[in-house]
Write a structure and sequence with these properties.
312 residues; alpha+beta; Alpha-Beta Plaits; 2 domains; five-stranded antiparallel β-sheet; five-stranded mixed β-sheet; PAS; diguanylate cyclase activity; PAS_4; diguanylate cyclase
């Protein structure tokens, strides 16, 4: 005896390119289409008539139960995006492993099935959005990298002036609101023009990169170290009183000047002058704080260079 022919609606359900399954209130599977069979490896006769968790104990039981109960109670559609929950079922995907996802990324829709105005079951659709998720992640990573490049100085790799001032503005606003301590150091390399004139700009650039790396290696994670332009640099020290900041200034000065910089086979002696200032009552803006640190820096230069001076 021949098996009964499938209706057109049955054929559509079987052949569509997304998963369809139906659950009753006790979480028993009432329908399981070809997509679900192919990706789970379980035929409909192995799944239908049994609680969904019997074959898929790894499913998020509490979350899925809440989602289904809301549909039964409210009689309205519900939706879950891969951005909220990357997947419901741990199905393999056919994208390259370089995509950075372990399982098929899925959007799920929960549709009430009613009889005489009562929700008797919920139809769940599972859409494969792995490609979309990979493209979006790649786009977000590209944007993040572009943002990072926009915040970084091209020569030294540390923060640029725009990013430094944005961080200083944020920290200054926080200081105005909550108080505490906040200090800024400005420093530059002594007689840097002479280094460029004597050894050339390639060596000069190498000196700047090496100096930036030396300082970056000794500052705290919570500090912001940036290049202001040319041979001038800045260090933002949240939660740091001026006295401690000037100890940091001396540490930086010695980090820079205690050993010459070797670039292109040339040993270049380098020293630095440092000026420091701290937020306090009467300093109305962060720009004033920068100006005070800058004044202290030039005082250090006038007094002979290779020294640290605090604004007073």
């Amino acid at each position: 005896m021949n098996a009964p022919a499938l209706s057109l609606s049955d054929l559509v359900v079987e052949r569509v390119g997304f998963g369809i399954f139906v659950l009753d209130r006790e979480m028993n599977v009432l329908m399981w289409n070809r997509f679900m069979q192919d990706h789970s490896g379980l035929a409909a006769e192995k799944v239908v008539g049994r609680p969904i968790f019997d074959n898929f104990p790894e499913l998020p039981r509490a979350w899925l139960s809440r989602k289904l109960e809301s549909v039964f109670q409210l009689g309205s559609f519900a939706f879950s995006s891969w951005e909220q929950r990357p997947y419901l079922f741990r199905f393999d995907h056919d994208r390259p492993i370089t995509g950075g996802v372990d399982f098929m990324q899925q959007d799920c829709t929960f549709m009430p099935l009613t009889r005489e105005r009562e929700v008797v079951a919920v139809c769940v659709t599972v859409s494969d959005v792995t490609h979309v998720s990979i493209v979006q992640r790649e786009r977000e990573e590209a944007v993040a990298k572009l943002q990072e490049y926009a915040d970084r100085d091209g020569l030294t790799g540390i923060a640029n002036r725009r990013f430094f001032e944005a961080r200083l503005s944020d920290e200054y606003t926080r200081w105005q609101r909550y108080g505490g301590d906040l200090s800024v150091l400005l420093f530059d390399l002594d007689h840097f023009k002479t280094i460029n004139d004597q050894f050339g700009h390639v060596v000069g650039d190498g000196v700047l990169r090496e100096m930036a790396q030396r300082v970056a290696d000794v500052v705290r994670v919570e500090d912001t170290f940036g290049r202001f332009g040319g041979e001038e640099f800045a260090l933002l020290l949240p939660g740091t009183p001026l006295g401690v900041a000037m100890q940091v200034a001396e540490k930086i000065r010695h980090t820079i000047g205690d050993a010459p910089v070797d670039v292109q086979g040339v040993s270049v002696p380098v020293t630095a002058s440092v000026g420091g200032a701290a937020a306090r009552a009467g300093v109305p803006t962060y720009e004033v704080l920068i100006n005070e640190a800058d004044a202290a820096l030039y005082s250090a230069k006038r007094q002979g260079r290779n020294r640290s001076i605090a604004f007073a």
